[in-house]
Amino acid sequence: MTQDLGAGRRASTATLAQARDDARGRADTAVEAMPYLPPSSSPYAPEGVDPGTLVWAETVGGPGYTHATVARGTRIRLEDVTGDACAHVVLHSALNRGERLNVADTQKIPWQAYLGQGHPLLSGDGRVLATVVADTAEGHHDAFCGVTTLAGNAARYGAGEAHAATAAGRELLLLAAAKEGLEPRDLPPSVSFFKGVRVAPTGALEWTGAAGPGASIDLVAEMPLTILIANAAHPLDPAEGYRSGPLRVHAWAAAASAPSDPWWSATPERTRAYLNTQQHLLARGIR
Questions:
Q1: Tens-place pLDDT, residues 96-128
Q2: What pLDDT score does 165 carry?
Q3: What's the Cα-to-Cα distance from 48 to each of 52, 55, 261, rounded to whole Å?
Q4: Could you tell me if 98 and 81 are in contact, meaning their C-beta atoms sit under 8 angstroms apart?
Q5: Is residue 271 one of the residues assigned to a domain?
Q6: What is the distance between the alpha carbons of residues 69 and 92, in angstroms, rounded to a whole number?
């Protein structure tokens, strides 16, 4: 058995020792989509962020998925590298996986259906899982459509399995969930970043397009958090073919929201949600 190395070179993997040597010889190989280990080694560390504070650094292929459980106060930056990424995000409390993102409450409590800076992402228990604290892609997010499905992608593109070139968002989220000990029934509707949707006066959902290359959004974890991300084409994307590009993820130790932040007191309902979160954590000795 041989392994093609390109340019006419082939390495034998016929024996266990040869296979081991071949694998070890690829240790320094870099590809477009990969995690950076340790995170401080990321060549794309956000400007102004001490690389030593990074706890997660990865480029997720398009299509692709990733997942992590992070501490309260972790700041997570998602960046659309080429303008073709779409980050479908699901959140769970790491304290109780039964508490998870509720898209209806995320729209209802702030009296705002469109995601942007200062927007809280709420659970069905009236607590804030995360807050959008920075956004350079305003107007290009979606909390209505969710993700593509296996059947839908099979009908539109010919395939939708997780490892297909036209993977469905739900299939990718199922893999991410499984690796965090979650089951299909634990997946609620997601929110999507970098591809915009608006509601027309007629009630129809209208595609508003992509945010563009380099657009980014920052979330801060308001409690210990499990985050699942599928980078896959948006269900309403009108492109003739499947469109998905690389998504860059960096997370670093920062601070959770505080009463001095403008979004904490933007409305009485938001204040209550943050106070609910604070009480929930204080009772567990988390500050």
A1: 999 999 999 999 999 999 999 999 999 999 999
A2: 97
A3: 12, 15, 20
A4: no
A5: yes
A6: 9
- Structural domain range at position 253: 54-282
What are the tokens at 184? 């299909």
Residue at 28 is within a domain: no
The span from the CA of 11 to the CA of 18, in Å, is 8
Average confidence (pLDDT) over 7-36: 78
Structure tokens at 185: 């029934």
Beta-carbon contacts of 105 under 8 Å, excluding residues fewer than 6 positions away, are: 122, 123, 124, 126
Query: Per the domain annotation, does 215 fall within a domain?
Result: yes
List pLDDT tens digits, range 43-78.
Answer: 999 999 999 999 999 999 999 999 999 999 999 999
Residue 173's pLDDT is: 98
pTM of the model as a whole: 0.93
Q: Is residue 41 part of a domain?
A: no
Domain count of the fold of the chain: 1
What dihedral do alpha carbons 166, 116, 198, 103 form, nearest 10°?
70
Give me 167's structure tokens. 């993977």
Question: In this model, does residue 263 exceed pLDDT 50?
Answer: yes
The CA-atom distances, in angstroms, between 39 and each of 35, 71, 87, 178 are 8, 16, 20, 23
Instruction: Evaluate the CA torsion angle 232, 177, 127, 199 in order and state its sign.
Output: positive
Q: DSSP for 43-83?
A: TTPPTTS-GGGEEEEEEE-SSEEEEEEE-TTEEEEEEESSS
4-19 residue pLDDT tens: 554 444 567 888 888 7
Long-range contacts of 264-270 (CB under 8 A, 24+ apart): 266/110, 266/118, 267/110, 267/111, 269/109, 269/110, 269/111, 270/109, 270/110, 270/120
Q: How far apart are the C-alpha atoms of 65 and 110, rounded to whole Å? A: 29
Q: Which pLDDT score, from 0 to 100, does residue 11 have?
A: 65
Say if residue 3's pLDDT is above 70.
Answer: no
